[in-house]
Structure formats: structure tokens, C-alpha cells
Amino acid sequence: MAVLTEEQTMLRDAARSWSQESSPVTAFRKLRDEKVPGGFKRETWKEIADMGWAGIVVPEAFGGVGMGYQTLGLVLEETGRTLTASALISTALCAASALVLGGTEQQKQTWLTKIASGDAIGSLAINESHHHDPHTVQLEAKRDGEGWRLNGRKRFVLDGGMADFFIVSAKTASGITLFLVMANSAGVGKQVLSMADSRGMADISFDNVKVAAADVVGHIDKGLAVLDATLDRASAGIAAEMLGTATQAFEITLDYLKVRTQFGRLIGTFQALQHRAGKMFVDLELSRSCVEAALSAIDENAPNASALASLAKARMSDTIHLVTNEMVQMHGGIGMTDVHDAGLYIKRARMAEATFGGAGFHRDRYAKAMGY
């Protein structure tokens, strides 16, 4: 376990008690049953922002708390335990990172301030296929006087239906350029998707959307540097959320092994199940080490941060896959029903595994970074 500062410990404990009291799994189930558009309520997001969590990676100069990625990871782990649906990943992690890394002073002043206060939801619009390879960009940005015109579509945009702005990757003359595009711009179309885990995603189309020269994030044709660094942060951050989800799934399963009787004895006394529980425990501990290493490498700007972010996402994807499968199996019949939370955990796990590239994509990326 990483050694936490007093501030970090306080923040983690606050996140734990808020998640368990104000945002338990029953609250998520209710949002799902009521088919709440976008998967969460904006007032919940405002509440989260009021606690300072929306601005954890936002510098103090722009209204944030500037405490870095390891700290945001602690909060994500706690909200991951209760499957809390919010804009923490799309906005506080991804959009904020892209702006911190590549935004102009004006963009930071306008948008980071609004992210930190909970007054804006932003999201990365970078995927164009289900392969999640951010380097394959078909959406085109063509020069139009001083500004640009965007044409194309992006898929599986997190919180795409609720976002106020998007960070969009586009193909320009000799590279990829990032643009900040208002969601209400003329020519922006949204198709809200119905996802297995009941979270909000949307496909976004861009039909001759006009953007100004001031809307470029970073440098023209050189957007990949900011995009890759943002995705490192996204992968490590979602891995922290997945760690919380998997840990909670494991603990629920462990509790069940201690109370369920079969053949006149507690099922936790069966050696086969003990071995399976032992395997999960070891995998979770290994994954935790990977997640903590990635987040602190990002905070320290370490040269191997990119490799560690991919390692964390790949390991965590494998671990959450195993643990949520075992959760359903070890609960037997009831684990197959919607009455039990196992189904909610396994669905969230599968979606998180695929977000920002799956285990295979990240193993490949890790291998390349390590020179294989």
C-alpha cells in the first residue's frame, strides 16, 4: 500500500463514507430502473464538485485543489466500490487532464474553473471504432478562413449525452490536432446509447462544425503528444476505479462464503473455493501495486509512466474479469438473478475493461514501450 499523506487519508475516508451513505449500489440500481438519462443526475455531480473532487487534478490557480492523480485514484477507488455513476472519469480525469496538458491560458481559465466547480461536464471524443485505437482518426478538420470545419463521427463518448464540451481529435494536413468543441455548436449531433452497465455513452457526429483558431488544444498537427499523455492518465485512473469495483466484488463474495451452507457445512470450508478465493486475493494485491505505481509515476512525471499506465490497465482488466466471474459463480443460483448485485458488478466490469483499450491493446502497448 502506498503511504498516504494526512490530507489524502482524510479525502479517502470522506469518499468512502459519502459513497456508502449517499451513493450505495441501491442508488445506482434506482438510477438504472428509472432509466435516468445520462446515467446520473447533474445535482449529484454538483455535490461531488462541492466536496472538491472534480478539481483534484486541476491546479489551484484555476479553482482546483491540485493534489494529483494518486489522490484522484483514491476517490475513484471508493466510488468504484459502490458503482457510483458520475462525471469523475469523463470530466475530472479525462477532460481536465487534456486541458491541463495542452490547453491555452484562456481555455484553462474558462473550462478548468467550470470543471472544478461542477458547472461543466466535458469528455474526450476520440474513438471511431470498437478497437479503441486513438491513433486511427478519420474525422477531418479542414481550414476555413481563420478557423476550421470538422466532419466525421466519434463513438462511445463517455457521458456524451450530458457533456457541455468535447475534446475532439481530428485529422489535419500532416498529423492529428485536438479541438475544444461546444456540444451545442451547429452541426453537432448526439445519439445516446443504451449501455449494458447503464452508464451514459453517446455517438457524436460532426457535420461541418465550425471551430475557431482559439479552439485548438495544444499544437496543430501535434495533438498526439497531449492525447497519449491524457490516455495514460485515463487508463491509470479507470484502473483505480476498477480496483475498487473488483475489491468490493471480492469482499461481497468472501462474506457469502462465510455464511452460505451446503451439504451441512459452510461453503467457505471447501478447499476448492478457498483456492479460488486465494487466487483472487493475490491477483488483487498485484493489481493494486500496478495501479499505485502508475498513478505515482504520472504524478512524478516519470519516463516510464506510459508503460506503467498500460500495465495497470491490462492487469486490472484481467483481474476484474476473473473476480466478477467468480462472484457470479460462487453465489450460485442467486448470482444469476437481477435481485443480486453480482450482475451489476459484472456488467460494469465488462464495460470498464473495454474503455480506453482492453487488456490486449494495453499488453501490446506495454510490450512496445518496453522495447519488445
Could you walk me through the main structural features you see in this protein, from its secondary elements to its overall organization?
The chain has 372 residues and is α+β, with helices and mostly antiparallel strands. It has 3 domains: 6-120, Acyl-CoA dehydrogenase/oxidase, N-terminal domain (Butyryl-Coa Dehydrogenase, subunit A, domain 1); 124-221, Butyryl-CoA Dehydrogenase, subunit A, domain 2; 224-369, Butyryl-CoA Dehydrogenase, subunit A, domain 3 (Up-down Bundle), CATH 1.20.140.10. The chain has 12 helices and 10 strands. The protein has helices at 6-22, 25-33, 42-50, 69-81, 88-102, 105-117, 223-259, 271-299, 305-330, 332-335, 342-354, 359-369; strands at residues 122-125, 140-144, 147-158, 165-172, 175-182, 188-194, 200-211, 216-217, 261-262, 265-266. The strands form 3 sheets. It has a 4-stranded mixed beta sheet with strand order 1-4-5-8, covered by helices on one side. The chain has a 4-stranded antiparallel beta sheet with strand order 2-3-7-6, with no helix packed on it. A two-stranded antiparallel sheet has the order 9-10. α1 (6-22) runs parallel beside α4. The longest helix is centred in the middle third of the chain and has 37 residues, at 223-259. The model has no long low-confidence stretch (mean pLDDT 96).
Strand content: 15-25%
Please tally the β strands and state the result: 10
CATH topology of the largest domain, which one?
A: Butyryl-CoA Dehydrogenase, subunit A, domain 3
Tally of domains: 3
Query: Average pLDDT, to the nearest integer?
Result: 96
Q: Distance between termini?
A: 30 Å
Radius of gyration: 21 Å
Q: Helix tally?
A: 12
Query: Can you tell me the CATH superfamily of the largest domain?
Result: Butyryl-CoA Dehydrogenase, subunit A, domain 3
Order of helices and strands: HHHHHHEEEEEEEEHEEHHHHH
What is the CATH architecture annotation of the largest domain?
A: Up-down Bundle
- Unreliable stretches (pLDDT < 50, length at least 5) are none
The amount of helix comes to 40-55%
